[in-house]
Amino acid sequence: MAQAEKKGGLLRKSSASKKPLKEKVVLMYDEIFTTEDPSKCNPRFWEELFLMKVNLEYLEGKLEALDGEELMKIKDNINCLFQHCIQALGEEHPIRVVNALQTLCALIRGVHQKNKSTSGFDIINMLVGFDKAELCMKNLMESLDSLLCAEGSESLKSLCLKLLLCLVTVTDNISQNTILEYVMINSIFEAILQILSSPLSRREHGYDAVVLLALLVNYRKYESVNPYIVKLSIVDDEATLNGMGLVIAQALSEYNRQYKDKEEEHQTGFFSALTNMVGSMFIADADEKISVQTNEAILLALYEAVHLNRNFITVLAQSHPEMGLMTSPTSPVPTTPVTPLGTTPPSSDVISSAELPLDADVQTSNLLITFLKYSSIVMQDTKDEHRLHSGKLCLIILTCIAEDQYANAFLHDDNMNFRVNLHRMPMRHRKKAADKNLPCRPLVCAVLDLMVEFIVTHMMKEFPMDLYVRCIQIVHKLLCYQKKCRVRLHYTWRELWSALINLLKFLMSNETVLLAKHNIFTLALMVVNLFNMFITYGDTFLPTPSSYDELYYEIIRMHQNFDNLYSMVLRLSTNAGQWKEPASKVTHALVNIRAIINHFNPKIESYAAVNHISQLSEDQVLEVVRSNYDTLTLKLQDGLDQYERYSEQHKEAAFFKELVRSISINVRKNLAFNTLSQELLLKEFSTIS
């Protein structure tokens, strides 16, 4: 009976009389958490420790359970463990290296939990000790660099990257993470580039490498010289830049694919049946259910590449035949558990398939098309904070592209025509466009379509003023290039003009509500100046003379909106209120639009009276316009084709600081060190002597 009780005690987790049975590694951890040196009684203690399977949960939990004072008492043992981990990274036995890497992850995360201002101890001192910090961190970074660059195990490389991501993201604000000073001094930039330039390494580790680089670039970027910024800005190796582009394209494309799958599921499911039954009144609510978590980390990587490296611009337009040729690796590949997109890379089977183009034709896709499709999805719903941030970052990236001379050259290239299927928000008053009827056009047309789509679909109570301003700025920058290079783009300009006039109408209709939160005159001025740009320089970039006539037709047809806008700004500019100055700027900007309306309207009325026509057709109005240009007098307006270039540090620093904090939290939350099961590792390292 006593024997049976004993056996039962071993099986039960705990009982009143007996302690639970502990695995050997846990007992060894307990020895480290005493004030005694664990190797005193057992000289082979450290050697044995790294042969044991790591218990991450127990080690982290044990560290978190101690207060700052208790942790300081065992500081020598923590320092010793950290140093022995670094030594073990140089071992020949891969199992020791794996266990050392996982132990380091647990140590860094566990000790960082205590790094609160109340604890009063320094994280570096706690982990390695001030006296040995420089040498220890140098050895750690050199070991990680060697492992990443070696031709050895892919599993080890994966763990190295996860350790580095752990190191970078232990604090919400990465710029407060003092350990990163050592990552700056002992750069792993070349190791990251090597991963991106090699097809095999890129397929296995490209995602983690790109996210790691994006985060490192943002360490104290405004306060000191960050070597990762300097080095990224001068990379000119084609294979490396293309590799980075491929990783970003794959992640964005995976998001697009997931969204498309959900959309199709949605259309054939319950909501579709419900919509058919009760009409389209629930269409907007139904579509809000289609949500795939946005990927700010990969978007940040794209931004840094576009913003910092002029050479990367060429990658945007390159098609990726490699995507269709990739095959799954033959060696065993550790799979990543299913976590929200934006935190882990697409699995290798996804990457190896030709998933980049959602179009039927594999050859007609590139990173820019994939990015535009991604943008068209995330910019649909800006009510969610993550999507708002994603939408803003998409527009910032497009701003950088719209300012770049080379980017504009391929955007407007008549020999580079693409069919870009952007996602359009379901709206009651318009039918869904048939994807197959899309024409092949220069890529700038897709950018303009995206801007028009945003303008039309976001006139709502929670007005995203900042996004609208960016949107209009992008259109303006593209027009400036067209005017400068005399590019006559065959585009449906009427859609843009109509969207802009409706935007002005919305601003006027909601004047009181919007003025309580925003200076709507800044946006109104930008819209009016877009029209001024068309009026003043349209003959140099509009595709045909009849396009210029159509511009005048639209202004005359919608004259009531411009008249109402003038009345509103005149009223506010003559009052001594806070809006006097911004409103008066709009008043002055309207001078040519009002001249056109006041010149042609009497001519049109006279034509109708003489010909006894109550309502003129479009062709008749255009005839009046064409025959009365000669007597129209317009004022020359300065600075219409000039703009302030994008500057991150002065205007966007707060946004990026918050964005990087959000990404850091997300990456840390979804970082899985035990994705490599011990069984898989043992199988991979079965040749250990």
TrEMBL record:
<feature type="compositionally biased region" description="Low complexity">
    <location>
        <begin position="338"/>
        <end position="348"/>
    </location>
</feature>
<feature type="domain" description="Armadillo-like helical">
    <location>
        <begin position="435"/>
        <end position="671"/>
    </location>
</feature>
<dbReference type="Pfam" id="PF08427">
    <property type="entry name" value="ARMH3_C"/>
</dbReference>
<keyword id="KW-0812">Transmembrane</keyword>
<dbReference type="GO" id="GO:0005829">
    <property type="term" value="C:cytosol"/>
</dbReference>
<feature type="region of interest" description="Disordered">
    <location>
        <begin position="328"/>
        <end position="350"/>
    </location>
</feature>
<keyword id="KW-0472">Membrane</keyword>
<dbReference type="InterPro" id="IPR016024">
    <property type="entry name" value="ARM-type_fold"/>
</dbReference>
<dbReference type="GO" id="GO:0016020">
    <property type="term" value="C:membrane"/>
</dbReference>
<dbReference type="InterPro" id="IPR039868">
    <property type="entry name" value="ARMD3-like"/>
</dbReference>
<dbReference type="InterPro" id="IPR013636">
    <property type="entry name" value="ARMH3_C"/>
</dbReference>
<keyword id="KW-1133">Transmembrane helix</keyword>
<protein>
    <submittedName>
        <fullName>ARMD3 protein</fullName>
    </submittedName>
</protein>
